[in-house]
Write a structure and sequence with these properties.
The chain has nine helices and eleven strands. It has about 300 residues and is α+β, with helices and mostly antiparallel strands.
């Protein structure tokens, strides 16, 4: 019996060693050949909420016109900003298409007075023609026509770097792969250019986009009901999205209860007022009861009043 047991253990050990040895090449090939450079390791977002971007930063739009960021800060509508580059076929395309998908489900449209969008290329070698082509592709995916206030800008390395540092978004160029590494994030600015919110990811929840725009607008866009609904959610910085807020839910429940109670009391008040008006009208008819029949007592009473007057 011990020999059989020892033999079984030996076979199991051999099988385990063989499997481990076979998996070793695959494991080794999965490891990075070289460590990441310090620049690539520095790709991150350092949120600068409350800071204001420089409105004098200058870029060139997709039509070839020289513009300033101040041209998009009108003091009325918030601005959604993304940093991408237009020849990117992976992260940027996925993120911009994901944003277009979310915006397609909104009842707002960029340029309708509620918000506008500015996408800035982080590649100083890209041209207005690159921006125009990318804009055409994204607007086609959005499916709301060409009259959309979504600007695609290019600029010099100095202007791009200044904007990215003000937003707290770092990026780096990988010469070996000939591409830029950057985080997938959307920034929301107030109508005056103050950084209000960050949303992360390659795709976006339409509700979160609207919440961020309402929050960035500082009360200038969004109906009272939408702003009340926003109070039921809180921004979770750990995931970069909005989640249910317990106290807000309780507050919304209290408001709805108060509205229901107020409506009920209003109905009662209207009914009592109507009844009082009917009784007042009936009292002005001296010889008629409520059922419409003559009232002998009131007839006699009126007759006595007439007799006293004629005496």
């Amino acid at each position: 019996m011990p020999r059989i047991f020892d033999s079984l253990l030996a076979r199991l050990a051999g099988i385990a060693f063989a499997l481990a040895f076979a998996a070793l090449p695959a494991w080794a090939s999965a490891q990075p050949a070289e460590p990441l450079s310090p620049e690539m390791r520095a790709i991150e977002v350092d949120e600068h909420k409350g800071s204001t971007i420089d409105p004098e930063l200058t870029f060139v739009d997709h039509t070839g016109k020289t513009v300033k960021l101040a041209d998009y800060l009108d003091g009325e509508a918030p601005v959604l900003v993304t940093l991408n580059y237009f020849r990117c076929r992976v992260v940027c395309s996925v993120q911009l298409n994901g944003l277009a998908d979310a915006l397609a489900e909104l009842d707002w449209t960029a340029g309708d007075g509620n918000f506008r969008i500015v996408t800035v290329s982080i590649d100083p070698n890209e041209t207005p023609e690159d921006a125009r082509k990318k804009r055409d592709t994204i607007l086609a995916a959005l499916g709301k026509g060409d009259d959309i206030d979504w600007q695609f800008l290019t600029g010099t390395s100095l202007q791009i770097r200044a904007l990215s540092e003000q937003l707290g978004v770092s990026y780096a160029y990988d010469a070996e792969q000939d591409q830029f590494a950057h985080p997938a994030v959307a920034m929301f600015l107030s109508p005056e250019g103050k950084i209000a919110q960050y949303l992360y990811g390659l795709t976006f929840i339409p509700r979160d986009v609207k919440f961020a725009l309402i929050e960035a607008s500082e009360g200038k866009v969004g109906s009272p009901m939408e702003q009340l609904y926003l109070s039921c959610f809180a921004y979770d910085p750990t995931i970069g999205r909005y989640g249910p807020f317990a106290f807000g839910m309780v507050r919304l429940g209290g408001v709805l209860t108060a509205l229901a109670l107020g409506g009920f009391l209003f109905v009662l008040w209207r009914r009592d007022r109507r009844r009082s008006r009917e009784e007042s009208s009936w009292m002005q008819l001296p010889f008629v009861k409520r059922d419409g029949e003559p009232d002998p007592m009131r007839l006699e009473h009126e007759h006595e009043k007439v007799s006293e007057v004629t005496k």
